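Good morning,

Both structures are done.
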Amino acid sequence: MKALITASFSREGLDALAEHMEIVHEDWRSNKHIYLDAAELGDKVREVGADVLIVEADFVFDAAIEGSGLKLIGSCRGDPNNIAVAKATELSIPVLFTPARNADAVADLTLGFLLALLRNIYTVNQKLKSGEMVFSGVADYLTAYQRYGGFELGGKLVGIVGFGAIGRRVAARCRAFGSPLLVYDPFVDAEQARAAGAEPVELDELMRRADVVTLHCPDTKENRGLISAERIASMKQGAYFLNLARAALVDDDALFEALRSGHLAGAAFDVFADEPVRADNRFVQLANVLAAPHLGGATRDVVRHQSEIMVAGVLAWIEGRKPRFLANPEVLG
């Protein structure tokens, strides 16, 4: 048996699989490509003669699956939306995935952004380094205290839109700081939200009441434009907004104007409508915005997490057991 792995994978994970199959590892990060399209990937699978295919960014659509001879497909993502699961199911090919692999990483970055916004960490750091902020007397210190002292996280009402793996971890981190929480997620039982220390509310109420709004919901047809111009306008004067989910969830024009005008005190983004993001992006140019180039799930720990989850699934399949995270469980009976 032979496996083609284009996902980033830990050495330990590769060694564990190598005990059961020949491994061809072509890490997409090392190869400097973002993804292979379905036709390219199909050609590669046939060239290698792979029985098992494990990807991260590549698109495993119909052209990559039909006639491939694959026996197992793995997607190192929380949602295997880069796999043609229906086609794989038609051909009785199990599809594994790795839920919550990057949940801690994104939650950590969310808290980092939030603390940096509330305490003006980046702004003060840059002004000190550039020499713009100097202290020649007590008056200068008083000015800095008044302008850049910021706020404590525990005193802010945090609204979390989307209460899945990432949203729950953000909630746990905010609770550790003493922050009261609002949650909107129509797919989560209200009692589950309360058990996590959050108040479940409708989205319009969350947008009106929260001092901080942070997005952690998927980019689905129903969610696109979820944060509309009307909802942005309803936010508190001086509130903060974070988006580490997807840009398509938000009315960009309305959000930009709310930040430019000062209606919102600040924002942080790890996702943009045009990626990779550039320095001349209008949001990046705003002084009250913190930006990162879609690095939320890019920690080295995420590679370890996804490798461990995927290896466990592959070994279960080899041993005739049903893997825990299987997108099409019907193929294994």
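Second structure follows.
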Amino acid sequence: MELRVVQGTPIYKRYLKAFTNEIHSKNPDRVSLRRAVLYGVKYINTHKYAHKEYAEREEIELKFKIIQAVKSLMELLTPKEFVNLFPIEKEYNHSKDDCWKDYFYTVNKLKTYNMGSPLGDKFEDFIWDYTNNEISRFAVETLSTASKLRQLDGQPSIMEEFAEKNNIPTYTLNKKDGYIINNQTHRSMPFKRKAPEYLKLVSNHIPK
């Protein structure tokens, strides 16, 4: 009997299909809305570009458009629906001096919202105060995608612009030629390449 390897559909493509199906539902309701948001976030967080080394403008623009669509849908959710979709992470800092967001920080912030009303224009503030790994990753993907679009237009990325304004040095890695260049001073230095895992150090001792 001949065995064959069946290539399955990548998970991000399945999430995209599910997201598309929900936003084109013939009978849209709150359930469809919640599902669309969930699948949209899952798609963005698992999305892979066709090429590992680079992404084409069309791919980046499509991803950014979907991000904006998901955020628009999020604005229609109530805080209560949002919490049910993306539960608050059970992370506790146990320190009043630590300004990092944790479970109690988010719970206290939620008290300032009407849990039964759509977030609307309060969405950006809400998301900033929210503690959930899935949402944090979505925020990172949003910034990363926006930065890629800026770079395609010849502009510095969001982090590069922030670093430049705050006099923080940034570096560019040239893997091919084996050096790192300081983007401010334009000075370069070599870097050590990590040996591939499949290479092992062997003894040159020849047994007698």
